[in-house]
């Protein structure tokens, strides 16, 4: 099968062009493609399919031509992926599947239609405004960290790392323990600490993330939006702009009264043909 490899701040994806929905994509195939030793490797798969040709996108075909069929690296579905949406749009532009018009480009996702715009070398996507809806906690080894539950079209738990504990030293090789009653479908867990002041933004936050279905990743776009919303709340602000530094680089999140814009680099790094052995 043909593929393109892309990433947004190190959050990497295998992009599969399948405009007419002919590819028989299965959880086992996705996991094999994303295997970093036996496959191509990636945090997830982005299938590029016309909304009208996909069961989950057909209802949105009147609003957006293209549907982002996103799968986690373990073969599970995700409702939304902020970095994936930005890389998806970069692919559409690079391959002439959409024509830049100066207006925001619509993309259908399982979380609804998102809009994207080109900002120089960066791509920004507009998503739903993060909704802070409760408190919970994550247990990491012998450490329990309280956090805020946030809905960004997918579930997040944002946990602030207390003073004296090194964010970089957290062991995220295993999934944090969370309350399944609060997060029955699992959750992305973000660990944060305040960064040094940055000019032009209202807050600066450092973040690491353990994503459901993908383990620790170098970046999570929806996670950055969740983190920004919590940072603004803690600063007694309902709107504003937050710089979020992840291991893979910097994302900029602007929370407005009605939505949330995620901006950062989105790069395509390779194209080719991928051949996998028969799945057993």
TrEMBL record:
Matches recorded under PROSITE patterns: DAP_EPIMERASE
Catalytic activity, as annotated: (2S,6S)-2,6-diaminopimelate = meso-2,6-diaminopimelate
Protein location: Cytoplasm
UniProt entry tagged with the keyword Isomerase: yes
Classification via NCBIfam families: DapF
Function of the protein: Catalyzes the stereoinversion of LL-2,6-diaminopimelate (L,L-DAP) to meso-diaminopimelate (meso-DAP), a precursor of L-lysine and an essential component of the bacterial peptidoglycan.
Protein name stated in the entry: Diaminopimelate epimerase
Organism: Micromonospora sediminimaris
Taxonomic classification: Bacteria, Bacillati, Actinomycetota, Actinomycetes, Micromonosporales
């Amino acid at each position: 099968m043909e593929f393109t490899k892309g990433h947004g701040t190190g959050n990497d994806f295998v992009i599969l062009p399948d405009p007419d929905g002919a590819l028989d994509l299965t959880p086992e195939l996705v996991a094999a493609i994303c295997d970093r030793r036996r496959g191509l490797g990636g945090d997830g798969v982005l299938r590029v399919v016309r909304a009208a040709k996909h069961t989950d996108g057909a209802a949105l075909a009147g609003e957006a031509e293209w549907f982002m069929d996103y799968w986690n690296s373990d073969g599970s579905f995700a409702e939304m992926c902020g970095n994936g949406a930005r890389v998806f749009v970069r692919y559409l532009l690079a391959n002439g599947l959409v024509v830049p018009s100066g207006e925001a480009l619509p993309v259908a996702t399982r979380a609804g239609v998102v809009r994207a715009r080109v900002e120089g070398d960066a791509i920004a996507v507009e998503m739903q405004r993060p909704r802070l809806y409760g408190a919970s906690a994550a247990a990491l080894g012998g450490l329990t960290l309280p956090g805020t539950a946030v809905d960004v079209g997918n579930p997040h738990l944002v946990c602030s790392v207390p003073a004296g504990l090194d964010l970089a030293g957290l062991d995220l090789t295993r999934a944090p323990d969370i309350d399944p009653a609060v997060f029955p479908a699992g959750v992305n867990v973000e660990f944060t600490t305040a960064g040094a002041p940055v000019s032009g933004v209202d807050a600066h936050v450092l973040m690491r993330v353990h994503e459901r279905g993908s383990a620790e990743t170098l970046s999570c776009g929806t996670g950055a939006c969740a983190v920004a919303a919590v940072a603004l709340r803690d600063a007694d602000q309902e709107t504003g702009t937050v710089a979020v530094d992840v291991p893979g680089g910097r994302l900029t999140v602007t929370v407005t009264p009605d939505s949330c814009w995620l901006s950062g680099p989105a790069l395509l790094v390779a194209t080719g043909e991928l051949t996998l052995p028969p799945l057993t």
